[in-house]
What we know:
single chain; 186 residues; mainly alpha
Amino acid sequence: MSRPVRLLTAAIVTTGLAMGLLPPVAGAESGGAARRGAAAGKESAQEQPFNASRAAREEKAIQDARRQQLAVKESALAAKEQELKKLSAKLEAQVKALEESKKRVDESMKVRSTAQKKQQDEKVQKMVKLFKTLRGEQAGQFIDSLHEDLALTLLSRLDTKTVAKLAPFINQPRVVKWISENLRGK
């Protein structure tokens, strides 16, 4: 064997023995092998501190490289975590703004609906006044020409005395329907 190969083999065996990876060498060897082993052992003993320290340095370098990689990954992870926190805060702010906007729209729709209902009630009240002032026959003809829902709403808003005055001039099934709805409580 050449000297570098013997040194490398001795370093591997020594490192393996030191780390507990290889079992200790048995004492019963053949004569030639024992002399070669002793000669290799002397060389290895002389080179062992150098090779063991070299292996230790290499192992330390590997561990340092791993630590450095872990530190880089950890810092990248921390940066991503900070970015996620910022995005989360931004999203929460947007959700809050949207909820507030929805609340304002709902309030606006409620106000608008109330105003439209009030305006519709005022219009119906004007029509009630108009039908009270009309002659019975003329008012009955107008009510008969209205859509059934509108006619029933108008009859519901008129007082009983006016409806009694208009009833003979209104389509009888319509009057009967109005009476039945009032009796049922609609």
